[in-house]
Design a protein that fits this description.
Strand content: 5-15%
Helix content: 55-70%
Shape: elongated
Distance between the termini: 117 Å
Number of helices: 20
Order of helices and strands: EHEEHEHEHHHHHHHHHHHHHEEEEHHHHE
Largest sheet: 3 strands, antiparallel
Structural class: mainly alpha
Number of domains: 5
C-alpha cells in the first residue's frame, strides 16, 4: 500500500527485525515504536491528504476480497457435495428396489387375502416389495372400502370386550396379522388370557359380582381355588398356584363367617386381662357390628379374591397353553411388569432354585401389589377397621399343614411387676418380681404389610416348602379334595367358637424374681 501510494499510514504488529528494516527504508519515517515491534509508519508523500486515510479501510478491502474468494470456493465445494449426495441416494434407491424384488419372505394369510383388493397377485411366499405394497393396500382397503375398520380395530384394542374369548382371539389375530406393535394390543391380550382362565375354571366373568355377597358367589369362590389346584396338579413348578389352592379355603371360610366375629368379640369381653394387657380400641363394639359394616368387609374380601385371579390367572393360563413364548408376548405388550416377567422366566427355567425364587416373587406381588391396598382400606374403615383386622389376625389360621396362625408365631408379650417390697427384713420377698406374660393375642396386624409378610416369611412359606420337599403326596391329596368340603372344615362355626375361647384362655406366665 505504501509503495503504490494509496496510503501513507500503516498500523501493524511487526517483529523488531522488520521495524529495524523500515527505519532505513527510503522515504519512510518511523513515527513511533511503543511496545514490542509496534510501528506507526508515515510515508513522506507529495499529497498530504493521503495521510488522513485510515489504514483499516485498506485492510477491510483486502479481507473482503479474500472472503469473497473463500465464499466462492465454499459454494463450489457445496455443489460438489450435493451432486455426490444425490448420486448416493439414487444408488441406494436402485439397490433397495433390487433387493425387495429379489428377496422372498413369508406372507401372512391376511396379506395374501388382501392382495386381491388391488388386483395384485400374492402367495404364501412373495417378494419383499409385494409384501410392503400388500400391507399398505390392506390398510387402505380396510380404512376406505370397509367404512373405517382400522379405526374400529384401534378402538376395540383400546377397550376390548370382557369374557368373550372368541371375539378377543379374532381381535388379536387381526392385530398380529397387521403388524400392530404388542403394546397397542396389551389390553386385549390380557383380557384374552383372563377369559381363557375363566373358561377353564368354569367362571362367568360377566356374572362375577362381589357386591352380591359370599352366598351368591359360592360357586365362583370354589371354582377359583379348584382352578389353582388343577394348575399345580398339572405342573408342580407352579408353586404359587399350589399354595393359593391350599390356603384358599381358610381365606374363603372368612367370607362366610364374618357374622361369627360378633361371637368372638363377646368372648373377648369376658376375658379377665392382667395389668398391662389391653385390647385394641373398638374390640368390644364388634359384638354389635352392624350389617352394613359386615357387608363392607365381606365385599372387600371378595374383591381381593377377584383381584388376585385377575392378576395371576392370565400369566398362568398363558404359560399353561403357550409356554414361555406366550409369556414373552405378554411382557412385550406390557401386561407383565419387568419383575413379574423375570419371575416367569425363572419358573420356566426348570431350575429348582429359580423356580422357587420365581414363585416367591409372584407371592410378593400378590401380597404387596395386588391386595395391600384392600387391607389398608379395611383397617382404615371407621369405626371398626382397626378392631376388625386385629380380630382377623387373632382367629385366622392358614390351611397348610404345619403352618401356624399369627398369635402362635408372634404373640403379644408383656412384663408385669408384682407389688410389694423386694426384701422382707433380711430376706428376699418371694412374692415380688417380674411376671413375663405370653398372651394368646397377636403382636401385630395382618392388615399391615410388614406384619403380614413377616408371618409368611417366618412360618407360612417355610411350612409350605417343607411340605413340597418332604411330603408332596400330602399336597396332592389335599388339592384333589373337594374345595367346598375344605372350606367347611375351616369355617368358624358355633362349635369352633368354643375352641377359640379355649385358645384365648391359653396364657403362659414366667415369673422372674
Amino acid at each position: 500500500a505504501l509503495e503504490s501510494g494509496e496510503v501513507d499510514l500503516v498500523a501493524n504488529a511487526l517483529p523488531p527485525s522488520q521495524v529495524e528494516r523500515l527505519r532505513s527504508a527510503d522515504g519512510i519515517e518511523v513515527a513511533e515504536v511503543p511496545g514490542l515491534g509496534y510501528a506507526h509508519l508515515v510515508s513522506n508523500m507529495v499529497e498530504p491528504r493521503l495521510a488522513l486515510v485510515d489504514v483499516r479501510r485498506a485492510r477491510a478491502a483486502a479481507v473482503g476480497a479474500a472472503d469473497s474468494a473463500l465464499g466462492a470456493e465454499r459454494a463450489a465445494v457445496r455443489r460438489e457435495v450435493d451432486l455426490l449426495r444425490e448420486g448416493l441416494r439414487a444408488h441406494a434407491s436402485r439397490t433397495g428396489s433390487a433387493l425387495q424384488a429379489a428377496v422372498l419372505v413369508a406372507v401372512p394369510d391376511a396379506l395374501v387375502e388382501s392382495a386381491g383388493l388391488a388386483g395384485r397377485a400374492a402367495g404364501p411366499w412373495s417378494s419383499l416389495a409385494d409384501v410392503l405394497a400388500g400391507a399398505v393396500m390392506r390398510a387402505a382397503a380396510e380404512g376406505a372400502l370397509q367404512g373405517g375398520a382400522l379405526t374400529d380395530l384401534r378402538e376395540a384394542l383400546a377397550s376390548p370386550p370382557v369374557g368373550r374369548t372368541d371375539e378377543l382371539a379374532a381381535l388379536l389375530d387381526r392385530a398380529r396379522a397387521l403388524g400392530v406393535p404388542p403394546p397397542q394390543y396389551g389390553a386385549a391380550l390380557e383380557g384374552y388370557w383372563t377369559s381363557r382362565a375363566a373358561d377353564e375354571a368354569g367362571i362367568d366373568l360377566l356374572a362375577w359380582d362381589v357386591t352380591a355377597g359370599a352366598d351368591a358367589n359360592r360357586g365362583t369362590i370354589e371354582a377359583v381355588y379348584r382352578y389353582y389346584a388343577d394348575l399345580y396338579l398339572e405342573d408342580p413348578d407352579l408353586e404359587w398356584a399350589g399354595m393359593a389352592a391350599l390356603i384358599g379355603p381358610s381365606f374363603a371360610a372368612g367370607f362366610f363367617d364374618l357374622a361369627q366375629f360378633r361371637g368372638v368379640a363377646e368372648r373377648l369381653q369376658d376375658l379377665p386381662l392382667p395389668p398391662g394387657v389391653r385390647l385394641p380400641p373398638g374390640v368390644e363394639d364388634l359384638a354389635q357390628l352392624g350389617e352394613d359394616e359386615l357387608a363392607f368387609y365381606e365385599t372387600t374380601l371378595l374383591s381381593m379374591q377377584k383381584e388376585i385371579f385377575g392378576d395371576m390367572a392370565p400369566g398362568h393360563q398363558a404359560y399353561r397353553e403357550g409356554g414361555a413364548a406366550a409369556l414373552e408376548e405378554m411382557a412385550a405388550a406390557g401386561v407383565l411388569p419387568g419383575t413379574t416377567a423375570q419371575a416367569w422366566r425363572d419358573i420356566a427355567s426348570g431350575d429348582r432354585d429359580r423356580v422357587a425364587a420365581g414363585n416367591g416373587a409372584l407371592l410378593l406381588r400378590e401380597q404387596y401389589e395386588v391386595i395391600d391396598d384392600d387391607y389398608d382400606r379395611m383397617r382404615a374403615h371407621a369405626p371398626s377397621g382397626e378392631a376388625f383386622t386385629w380380630a382377623l389376625t387373632l382367629v385366622g389360621a392358614p390351611s397348610i399343614p404345619g403352618a401356624s396362625g399369627y398369635p402362635d408365631v408372634f404373640p403379644l408379650e408383656v412384663a408385669v411387676e408384682t407389688p410389694g417390697p423386694e426384701r422382707l427384713g433380711p430376706w428376699d420377698n418371694p412374692a415380688q418380681g417380674t411376671a413375663h406374660v405370653t398372651t394368646p393375642f397377636p403382636d401385630g396386624n395382618v392388615a399391615d404389610f410388614d406384619d403380614r409378610w413377616a408371618l409368611i416369611e417366618e412360618d407360612t412359606l417355610p411350612a409350605y416348602r417343607s411340605l413340597l420337599d418332604d411330603d408332596p403326596g400330602t399336597v396332592r391329596a389335599l388339592l384333589e379334595q373337594d374345595v367346598g368340603e375344605r372350606v367347611e372344615q375351616m369355617r368358624t362355626l358355633p362349635h369352633r367358637l368354643d375352641d377359640i375361647a379355649a385358645q384365648l384362655a391359653d396364657w403362659d406366665v414366667r415369673f422372674e424374681q
